[in-house]
Every structure is written in C-alpha cells, then in structure tokens.
Amino acid sequence: MKMHKMLFSYDRAILQLKLKKVKTLIWELPCMLGWLLLVACNAQPANERQAGTQPDIFPDYIGVTVPVDIAPLNFAMVDDSVSSIDVTVKGSLGGSIHVGGDYADFPIDEWHELLNQNRGAHLSVSVAACREGRWTRYRTFLINVGNDSIGARSITYRRIAPGYEQYGHMGIYKRSLASFDETALVDNSSRPGMCVNCHTNNGGNGEQYVFHARNENGGTFIKHNGKLARVVIDKKSPVAPRSFVYPGWHPSGRYCAFSTNKTSQMFHLANAPKRIEVYDSESDVFVYDVEKHRIIRDTLTMRRYWAETCPAFSADGQWLYFVTARRQLYPVDYDKEQYVLCRVAFDERTGRFSSDVDTLINTPDQPSVTWPRPSADGRYLMYTVADWGYFTIWHPEADLWLLDLQSGEQRRMDEVNSPRADSFHNWSPSGNWFLFTSRRGDGLYTRIYFSRLGDDGRATKPFLLPQRNPRYYDVQSLYSFNTPEFEL
Predict the structure, then answer these.
(1) Can you tell me whether residue 17 is helix, strand or coil?
(2) Do the Cβ atoms of 212 and 220 come closer than 8 Å?
(3) Residue 283 DSSP SS3
(4) Is residue 49 helix, strand or coil?
(5) pLDDT tens by residue, 197-209
(6) Distance CA 212, CA 222 (A)
(7) How many C-beta neighbours within 10 Å does residue 232 have?
(8) Is the pTM of this model over 0.70?
C-alpha cells in the first residue's frame, strides 16, 4: 500500500523560496545604494566590452514570434549584479526604439507603432549591460513579428496564492493583451475564504460566461442574455449534490457541458517529485440547457464504473469531446487511473447525443489523456498527457500534445513543452494562436505563455505574458495564474 501523509509545512516552504530572495534584496538595499554611487555607469555605454554571446534575459524573448497587437516585451537581465541596461530595438522594415534603466521598459504607443510597421518581418534587439561601472555589449537577437493579430483583446485567468487547507486572496481577472491593464471580474476580498473558479466564456464572448463560487451563498453562476443568475437545480436531480465543474460552451450559446466531480486531494511524502495528487472518486459529464434550465443526461457520458470529465464542444457544435477512465480503488490505486479521449455526436436541434461514442486515443502504452481543446477551425485538437490522472498541473511530466483531426496523426509538441508541468491550454477564437500555463520558471508557480501554430502544424517558441516590470514579477509575485482564456 502506498503511504501518504499531509505536508502541513508545505505552504510555508513554497513562500519561503520566493520571500528569501525578497528579504535579501531588502537587507542589501542600503549597501547596494552606496556601492552604486561608487561604480555607477555612464548614461550611455562607453568603452564597451564585446561579449560574443546573446544576453541572458528574463523573460526569455529571444527568437520568439509575437502578434502585432501584443503589449511591449519588457525584460531585465537575469544577473542581479547588472545595475543598468541600454537597449535599442530596430525594425527590419524601419523604425526604432531606444530605452535604458534597470530594465527595458518600452513605451506602449511607440511599441505598437514599431510592430505594425514591421508586420511579417522582425525586430533586432541590441543590449548593453553595466556591471561595476563597465559596459558589456551582447550579440543582437531577433523577435519575429507575425502578419496577424492574436484574435482577442484580452485574457481572463484566476490568480491565486498557494494553499491547500484554506483559500487566501484570489479572484478572476481580465488582462489587456495590448497593454498591462488588469481589472477584477470576481474578487473574494469582500468575502475572505471564498473560492472562485471555472470561469469560462463562450468562444471569447465576455458577455456569456459561467463561473463557480464556494461559500455559504455559492454555486454555479451563468451570464446569459445580459443577466447573471445562479443555477438552481431540483434537489431530486442526480447531479444536485455535487458541483457543476469544468464547463464547455456549445457555440450556439444555448448549451453548456459540465462535469460533476467528487474530488479529493492528498499529499505525497516529503521530497517526492509529485507533491499533491487530485483525483475524482466519482465524475460524470452532462449538458445544461441554459434557456430551458434543464439537465440533459445520457448513459453514454454517465457510466457507473467510469469517470467522465473535461468536456469540450467542437467549434461547429457537432461533437462533444471528453475524457474517461475506469474508476480505481482510491486512494491506493490512484496511479492506475488512465484517461482516454472520446467524443460523441450532439444534435443542437434536439439536444440529444448519438447512440455511439468514438474513442479517439486509447493505446495500452499511452499515458493519461486530459483537457481536450479543439481549435476554432476544427482541424486540430490539443490535449495534455501525464503519467496518470487528469489534474495535470501537479504533474511535472505533463506535456501538450496535438491531434490532427483530419489525418489522425498525434504528436507531442516538443517545440513548446518544458521539463515541468505544461497544461491548461486554450485556443484563440480566431486564428492559430493559443495559450497555456507552465511551471517552467521555478517549478512552483504557473505562468501564462503564448505560441502560434503555423501552417505546417508546428508551433513557435512560447513567450511569457508581457509584464510591466519583469523584476517585480519574477521576485515578488507569489501568485499562480491558471485556467486562462481568450476574450474578444
């Protein structure tokens, strides 16, 4: 039998990793100020030393491809001994920006003018860094500019601090993609301890969405036809005792698929590669008719000894994708839970499923398949693969995979994956851009990354959601960003 115990000190350990660096900066600040006065660099680089290598910057924007409407890619040197940097960005089709200071902080209007001037071309970025009064010039690197926009004005996400017994400050936020503006859609500041999650819009439509709140007046809330209302289900309904979880909208806006999950959480022994395990002892998939306020149930997606979850409609609404696994003896056999990818035809007119379920991915040597997300053009389906289970954010081995729905070819997306958890992905409503969350930075916090799928089915190098001050973001941000979605 596998032994597990609660790691009561784990929350504190996570915070200490980040706070240690913050405290170090605070204690060393007076000494640093005096040192900088003695070794301060000139305003402009002089007597430069040529490094012969490209700069080590955070975020890593070297060689990325960006849409023409993305916010400035501000960055800083990774080396903390750098006191100042000098950056010049030149477009291959014209235009330039010059900035200097603690980090590269590009003016928003000038940045967008430069991107639009260089559609389909590239930007050359020259960086000089000052250490102890001496400047070093690095090799120029490129940023590719796409011909298209990202297809959305903003993204939404849940921002949450780590914690497993009580909920701290969290909320659902909307962030502009063209600037750094962020607004709270739902925040628990007025009701400490409330958990908000599963915010999902319909194909990028910010006026039709669903989210779930856990508190004394909580439940599932749906905004439809300009009204926000709490879903009320007859207590005699088989799904009434449990929550509406993991929503997936039908493109018509009339239906929304949900899973209903009985979720448990456990902790591995200290120093284990995987710290937390999340599993469902029960789960089913059903469809909710938001106009007639009724639940559409079918034994095809609610089998007794199977756990169906993670529903998602195709862009044309003709298919409902989901994953399912044979239920195990929990928590003993949690690592034998292998999800397979399925789909079932759905008739929008009648609100009924077909009589058969197609199994798309189910091979004996295939790990667990989760979080199916079909592309807007219906060509591809992106999903996450892990060794077992479906809550992949806690699985370092979790990777993104791509299924070509026309050819049936499936492959691991090595061009975007990292050695740490990559998951919770979504497609842009129009175009080939997609986003996903990753723990590639420090292994503890999820961050949002973007990439574009080309005509050849290959994705570009991912880039981190741009931040106004990358130093603050890296050192002082103690929040994870998860379940992101595009919004028109």
Answers:
(1) helix
(2) yes
(3) strand
(4) strand
(5) 778 999 999 999 9
(6) 9
(7) 10
(8) yes
